[in-house]
Amino acid sequence: MLKFSNLSIKFKIMILALMVSVLLTLSLIFASTILSNRNLSNLGISMGMNDAKMHTKLISNWVLERKRDLETYANTHVLEGHSWQDKQNYLKEELSKSSNDYFFFFIADKEGDYSTTWSTDVGNISDRDYFSKVLNDRQTYISKPLISKSTGEPIIVIATPLPEEEKEGFSLLAAVINLKQFSDYINKLGIKHFDSYSYIINNDGKIIAHPDNRMIIKENISEKSNLIDKKLVSLSSKIKISNSGMVKYKDEDEKSYLFYHNINGTDGWKLITVIPEEVFVRPLATTSKKLILIGLITIIISVIFSIFIANNLSKPIVELKDVFNKGAEGNLSVRAHKKSQDEIGEAIDSFNKMMDTINKLTYNDPLTGLVNLFCFTEKVDKELQKHQSLSQKVVSRASNCKTKWGKLIVLSIGIDNFKTINDSFGHEVGDQLLKSITMRLKNYLPDGTIISRMGDEFYLYIEGLKNKQEILLKGQNLLSEVNQHYTINGDIIYLTSSLGIAVYPDSGYTAQMLIKNSGLAMHLVKDRNGNDIQFYSAGMENELSERMSLESKLRLALEREEFILYYQPLINAQSEKVQGFEALIRWKHPSEGMISPARFIPLAEQNGLIIDIGQWALKRACQQLKQWQELGYDDLYVSVNIAPQEFQNPDFVEKVEAILLETGIEPKSLELEITERATMENISYTIESLKELKKIGVKIAIDDFGTGYSSLSYLKEFAINTLKIDQSFIRELTLDDIDNKNAAIAETIITIGHNLDLKVTAEGVERREQLEFLKARGCDVLQGYYFSRPVDEEKAIKLL
User: Fold this and answer.
1) How many other β-carbons are positioned within 10 Å of the β-carbon of residue 515?
2) Three-state secondary structure of 247-262
3) Neighbours of 350 (CB within 10 A)
4) How many whole angstroms separate alpha carbon 563 and alpha carbon 589?
């Protein structure tokens, strides 16, 4: 065996140097591992605490928003002085907008008898603790977890007092939150580590929300059960008395960290987040392996480099920990600077992405990048406060804040019939359309203008306009900018929008009031067929309430068979004899009498009832035509108006075929009138649908021709039979005035129709000279009061 003493000095020095290097390197590796593990462990705990705190803040904000929403509902005009039916309809509408935040609403009287948004006289809640507290304290209160009397589901109740002036005897308004749905919401916001989850307890330790629905209300962390072990019970007292913290927990040989934090705005609720220890151990093991590898390389290089590398490995971890601490303190703008591509660099990327996501969820609309309504409200309130302070130094409040900045206004822009666009083109196109509208608004408005989106509505804060005329001009320019056509995925989309305006301080002194009132004005425009501008004024709530009442009656009109059809004759221009009838719907209400189509048709188009009403009218018209044909009027035909939503419905052609088959009339005896604008909403769909209808044998007329957007290039592609000249071009037509513009337009349409081998119908004929003019130009069919007003079926047959 070779002895050490027999080796050359060179090898002895080399061996000694290697031994020293190895020992020093191993020592450095050992020290670095301990230091890194300690820092990473602290970092993991800081991350857990930070996540729990921010998660808690989101939940707290959610609870606060529910309270504010409920207080807003309670103080609306509808809940203060209207009937229970009006209240119920209002709450149903608000419930449909709530994105499943609420299970249902209910209203209770002073005796505790309550009715929900779905049922009346459900039961009595006078034995509930929140009932007496709300009535006595006159404040919004969140109940303890309980089992719903009406549904048997685990719930919590947020209750608020109704104004004492309430005339129907009701005392409180309450929103019911299903704890199972609440649990789903909690864990969607939670930490996304494998096997990690979050749940909520109240101040007694009872579980309010949990991903395992079996534990909701039924389990308490202070009481041992099949689902709660004694280790958690032993920790429960510490969790209940501390506002926040972390404890280690072992369950069935699996170690976990429990992070808990008080939820502000609640009665002692705590959020508990459970993260397996494996989540923290895994990066520690990975880091240790890398340190060993680095240490082996450093043996060759030198001991000095080993120390240098250890210091450089430790430094970014400490820096990252400091950044996490700043984030835990609520600084959402803090970001870590990435200096490496290893696990620490990945942790920095994850942290920065997490902070970006939290910031966006807190303040921005994820689709358009605009601020959300919560952030918009905060920003506008700050602007109002700033101008209030400045205006008090310049002029009194009576000046309506007419400082050098001019008027302060909030505008609400709502897209008319956006649901129809979504149904016709798909939600992906609808999203692209909202993005395009956002870009137009940004490009048109000055930089820094505060813009927000909620659904298909946009809210804008604008200042600097001096008077109502300037505000109106600004609104008109905005509508003109938004209402231009859009090309998305090859489809041309035409739209209109409605605009509501609320001016500070006439329409409100806070952002919330201005947003609400501009929205009321905008919705009032929509109820009046849209595509217009409306300033907010007192009394609009009453008009909207009347609209809701009419909508409720409209929903019952079909099943109660309150609709009837009137018939206006279609006259052969040469023989001046009846060759068909246009079916026109009328609503005969049992108590209000005849309700004008101008009142209920726009409403039906907005709420979607127009599809069912249109199908009824089509079927009834075909049935009546069949009766007339059986009396010997074989050549008679009927023309039926088709609403845009009805035509754009994907199964429209199939429904037409089914009605023809059921009623037994020939397809050639039916003419469908489709407005010019309806054909342009989805060109490819229109072309295909009209071809299918032509194959069946049904005749198609383009109604109100000359008032819409169609171009001749598309017109020649449409499988149609007739052009109907809009009555606006006929009413002022006289033989003494044949050179006017209306005469030119009418004559041009007749020429275009005949050149395209189409029939031409003129509606709105009221005088003999109009008949003579149209007859002389070769118009095929005439319609109007000169021949007959729309009449019922008994009078119609006498015209034949």
Assistant:
1) 22
2) EEEEECCEEEEEEEEE
3) 12
4) 8
CA nearest neighbour of 482 among 419, 412, 420, 422: 412
Q: Is the pLDDT of residue 261 over 80?
A: yes
What are the φ/ψ torsions at residue 685 (nearest 5 degrees)? Answer: -65, -40
pLDDT reading at 302 higher than 90: no
Q: Cα(2)–Cα(24) distance, rounded to whole angstroms?
A: 27
- Residue 713: what pLDDT? 65
SS3 state of residue 719: coil
Does residue 742 surpass a pLDDT of 50?
Answer: yes
Question: What's the CA dihedral at 349, 355, 356, 359 to 10 degrees?
Answer: 180
Residues in the chain: 800
Give the model confidence (pLDDT) of 505-555 as tens digits.
888 889 898 999 998 889 888 877 788 999 988 777 776 777 778 778 888
What does the pLDDT average to over 70-87? 80
Q: How far apart are CA 151 and CA 103, in angstroms?
A: 10
Q: Domain 191-276: which topology?
A: Beta-Lactamase (3.30.450)
Distance in angstroms (rounded) separating the CA atoms of residues 607 and 114: 29
- The span from the CA of 18 to the CA of 287, in Å, is 25
Name the pTM for this structure: 0.47
**CATH tag, 373-538:** 3.30.70.270
Cβ atoms 143, 156 nearer than 8 A: yes
Mean pLDDT of 470-486: 91
In this chain, the answer to whether the domains covering 191-276 and 551-798 adopt an identical fold is no
Query: Which one-letter amino acid corresponds to residue 560?
Result: R
CB atoms within 10 A of CB 174: 26
**Count of H-run helices and E-run strands, the chain:** 25, 28
Q: Which residue has the tokens 């807190």?
A: 362
Q: Which of 142-146, 328-332, 662-666, 717-721 has the highest mean pLDDT?
A: 662-666
Structure tokens given for 346 = 């990945």
Distance CA 63, CA 116 (A): 21
Which DSSP string corresponds to 213-245?
A: GGGTTT-BTTS--SSS-HHHHHHHHHHHH-SEE
Question: Cα(749)–Cα(763) distance, rounded to whole angstroms?
Answer: 13
Query: Measured between alpha carbons, how far is residue 79 from residues 112, 173, 178, 543 in Å?
Result: 17, 9, 23, 15
- Among the CATH numbers 3.20.20.450, 3.90.226.10, 3.30.70.2860, 3.40.50.300, which is that of 551-798? 3.20.20.450
Q: What are the boundaries of each domain within the chain?
A: 4-45+290-363, 75-181, 191-276, 373-538, 551-798
Question: Comparing 32-41, 123-132, 381-390, 625-634, which segment has the lowest mean pLDDT?
Answer: 32-41
Q: How does residue 9 score in pLDDT terms, banded at 50, 70 and 90?
A: very low
Spatial contact of 292 and 310, defined as CB atoms under 8 Å apart: no
CB atoms within 10 A of CB 5: 6
> How does DSSP classify residue 762?
E
Residue with tokens 């059986």: 630
Dihedral Cα 657, 659, 661, 664, nearest 10 deg? -130
Q: What is the reported pLDDT for 398?
A: 44
189 or 444, higher pLDDT: 444
Q: For the residues 580-589, what does the mean pLDDT come to?
A: 94
User: Can you spell out the DSSP letters for 78-103?
Assistant: HHHHS-HHHHHHHHHHHHHTSTT--S
Q: Which of 558, 566, 608, 604 is nearest to 585 (CA)?
A: 566
Give 36-52 pLDDT, tens digit per residue.
666 666 666 777 777 77
Class of domain 75-181: alpha beta
